[in-house]
Every structure is written in C-alpha cells, then in structure tokens.
Amino acid sequence: MMAEELSRSGLFAADDHSLAVDLAWEAEEDKKTYKIALLIALIFHIILIWVNIPDFGNKNFVEEKKDEKIMRRVVLRPPPEQQMKQLQLKKKMQKVPVPDPTPDKPEPIVPIETSDNEAFNPDDDYIIGVPDAPPAPTGPIRDGTVGLERPVYNLNQLQQNVVYPELGKKAGLQGYVILEVVLKKDGRVGNVRVIGGPLRALGFPEAAIRAVKKMRFTPGKLRGQPVDVILTLTVTFKLRR
Predict the structure, then answer these.
(1) Is 70 contained in some domain?
(2) DSSP secondary structure of the chain
(3) Tens of pLDDT along 150-175?
C-alpha cells in the first residue's frame, strides 16, 4: 500500500513538471510572437512616415498631370494665285544668253511679215505736220480762263452811254451798279443781269443795262477763235455839280 502511494505521488509530480514546462514554452512562444508583431508594426509605421501616401478621401487632392506632348498637324495652304503668276512670269523671263557662234559674220536679214490690213495704200489720206487745234467750246467762257484773250472795250465810252434816271437825279442819289454781261463772239451784247451795287431802284439798274447794250467791243478769243465771254462790268452814276 505504501509503495503504491509513493508511485502515485511520483507520477503526479512528473505530470505537474511536464505541465509547467509546457506552460513556460507557450509563454516563451507568445513573447516571440508579440515581439515579431511589434517589429512589423514599427516597420509599417516607419514606411508610412517616409512614404507620402495620397489621401484619396480629401477633396482638395490634386492629381498630378503627366507631361503630354500634343502633336498638331499643320496643313500648309497653297500660295495665292497672284504670287503663283508672278513666279511663273519670273521663270518665263529668266533667259540664258546664248553666245553667237559666228560673231564676225553679219547677221542674216529677216523679212518683216506684215498683214494685209497694215499694207500701205497710196490712196489713203495721211495728216502730215502739226494737227489743227481742237475746236473752241460752244458755250460762253468765263473771264479769267487760262488761254483766254479778253474782249477789248472802252470804259469811257461805256460811261458816255449812261443816261441818269430822273427819279435818281431828283433824289440826289449817286453810286454804281454791278452787272454780269455776256459779250458774244459776233460783237453783240448778250444776256445782262444785275448782281450787285447799292443802286437797286429808281431806274438805276435799267439805265445801266441800256448803257451796256450800246457798248462796242472786240470779241474775246480762245486758241485763236472768237468765243462768247462772261465778265463783270461796273456802271457808275455820279451827279455833275
């Protein structure tokens, strides 16, 4: 009985020792696993610190654009038509001089071809010498025109033709009347009209027109031919004391 108890107590002691060893080994393995996990976590945090990981959840994140080279196709337009014509003319005008192989020999006489329309006809009328001057204008020419020879007249003779109007003489008025007169190429006085002067009434305009109508003159000329001339005349009225 005693021996059995001792053997049982030894068995129990052996079992307790084996269990303690197993627990110690498991604790050691747990420590190793913890250390490895801690080391991995530390390495991961270091990587997060050194590597800039973009925050895809942030709206302000700006995606970096890659440098892209844009290839564009340029279509060359044809040159304008005027430039093409000028280039063609320049090409045509560029002539290469050819040296004369026989400079000492006289050049052959080449007959000039003439058409039937250009043939000389002795019966045709040809103008030889200076052509006639162009015809003078038909309308009246204003005084002062280039090349105009003014009509020749006598102002004293014009004033002698003046008859003082009775109403103006009674009123004691003196002055002048300005007239625009057409002196015709046939020696007659044409249209006459009053264009100025202080004496516009009491018979002064009519007396001035009558005096001009009696005037004698030599017609004006343009390029040697008589022409009608428009000019201005002043008729003076002065009382004799």
Answers:
(1) no
(2) -HHHHHHHHHHHHHHHHHHHHHHHHHHHHHHHHHHHHHHHHHHHHHHHHHS----TT-TT--PPPP--PPP-PPPPPPPPHHHHHHHHHHHHH-------S-TTSPPPPPPPP--GGG---TTS----SSPPPPPPPSSPEETT-TTEE--EE-HHHHHHT----HHHHHHT--EEEEEEEEE-TTS-EEEEEEEE-S--STTHHHHHHHHHHT--EEPEEETTEEE-EEEEEEEEE----
(3) 999 999 999 999 999 999 999 999 99
